[in-house]
Amino acid sequence: MIEPIFLAEAAINGIMLGGILALLALGLNLIFGVIDIVWIAYVDLVMVCMYVLYFVVQVYGWPFWLGALAAMAFGAALGVGVHLLIITPILGSAPVNQLLATGGLLFFLQSFATFLWTTDHKSVRLALPSWEIGGIFLPATRLIPFAISILALVGLYVFLTRTYVGTAIRAVSQDREAMALMGASPQRIYIVTSAVGGLMAGLAGALLLFQYSVHPFFGGQFGPLTFMICVLGGLGNMVGAFVASFVMSEIISIAGVVWSTEMGYVIAFVVFIVMIFARPGGILARRQ
Amino acid sequence: MSLLELRGVTAGYGHFTALWDVSLSVAAGEAVAVVGPNGAGKTTLLRVISGLIAPRAGDLAFEGAALGGKPAYEIVAHGIAHVPEGRRIFPALTVSDNLKMGAYLPAARRRFAESLERVYALFPVLAERRAQRAGSLSGGEQQMLAIGRALMSRPKLILLDEPSMGLAPVMVLRVFDLIRRIREEGYTILVVEQNVRQVLKLVDRAYLLEVGRIKMEGRAAELGEQDFVRKAYVGL
Q: A4-278 has which CATH code?
């Protein structure tokens, strides 16, 4: 029998992980909801941003926070670049071609990263404290990324609900043509959305680098999980993705303590497959 | 001089041609109807004017400026607001956010508060339901919201596509009444309708569109008198 204190710690770690997963999932979901194309390579863009942060901090000696801002700016630029170079030409194509194009980007990024930086794992060493409260261990390397990801999600919420452009982004996801009749150029809305999605990828990369080392296949670690969370929450459904992030992170974290981390992923994927049959529209969708 | 002028406009989708050589004009302050059976090309006509589809041939001018081939988001800025078929409100946005989107253009945004007050005065029910999701409104209220959203862009010309479609008979009368009030405020209106009897009471002139071609044109009162129109569309 596992001691309750370990389960409590696992549950708290699950919440911390859920914050970052939510950031990843909402970034991917935002882009899908508006542009209607799944960026299969989303977490690989995160990986590139992590390398940018690693190099400016470890090689050029920038402070971490400044490097994180640079990674976010780089992510935003990368998002716009991906939209203009890869997404724009295939906007009207068949879904399978869109999948192939963004999947191609994934393999390109993995191979190019391997070519440039080899397959070595690279990490940034951060000297951060840890706290113990009632026997539960709370390291700052988890607490800080969690707090920042929640702040970022609140920021995203405010942006999408309180600003003209944010409201227009939501409007486009509901009716693209009607929004053109309001005077909004769809392409401009797409570019803003891609920039915001890229910015979130940059931020997620910075937060992941607190705990994980980066390597060219980092996308394989979080990419399928992120995609799974989006589907589980209902593609394009932001609240659903938020809830699904914490459901998945808790499964992984608690099963990880009870059995093993590998088993945690196995159970998460099994839950996903079962849910796809039980609620194909996502956990928050109404039953038909 | 006419506000809107179409000369020899031909348009369609893919290999299908929905409009053939259509010429039409609307003068400032006028209310004009385009009537005709289902599939006559009425919706296509409005979609060409608002830029949702590009004409294949012909000229389209608004206040003397050529608009043919310009995208929809640029045409709004010239002062044409399109209330599309099926209303097309943003269902998950609140009523007030829908109206906010109507004033998306910078020029309209600057006069947002003033426009909002006018729309709420015209449609008090929208003010009552401002915080509600637009998708939860009744059909008639959604139509009012779609018209209100169009007014938020401060247009000179309003294109209305089947404003009475799918509404209960009582609501149809109310919507026509509201369109009459909008008219009285000085807006120029081009309306497409299947409810010919009601719409002919509302407008100054009307065009009869059949299988993509203008078949007849005249004062609304005269057109309503024609045996042919009465039998075919008014149901008298």
A: 1.10.3470
